[in-house]
Write a structure and sequence with these properties.
The chain is mainly α. The protein contains six helices and three strands. A hairpin with a 6-residue loop joins strand 2 and strand 3. The protein is extended.
Amino acid sequence: SHGANSGRKDRSRFRIEADWIGTLDPSPWLCIPTALRFLGGLFEGGFDGLRAHNRDLALYGRRLLCETLGIAPPCPESMIGSLASVPIPDGTVPGSPPLFLDPLHVALFETERIEVPVMNWPKPPRRLLRISAQAHNHRSEYERLVAVLPRLLQHTGSRPS
């Protein structure tokens, strides 16, 4: 560490060696004001406009998923921010290890380049698909997800819950 060869005696050896990490890069902290100004200027209304856009998009995507899967929304709209999870048909790999990638998750990414988490919940074989809505997302991305989802659910061996 930076202080490894210091002859200082005014503080503990631990602090001398560990208080200053030589590879510390403060640039992420220094760019925060610029990043906040940028995000606040993306939508009319500043951050409230950004949050409203993300929430509206998450609700839109959730509605499409629920319609496609033929399920009722799992919670009221008042509980949705910019993320939404929906239950999907059970997987076929019960008892899979916690870090196991669900076959649907893999198929969505490898065949369609769609990155959405598919996770066991509350435990296998039950699972959820979670969407996240951000300023860079568009309705067409959620429409594409629901267009391929039924085929990939069948292809990956999902079974009705």
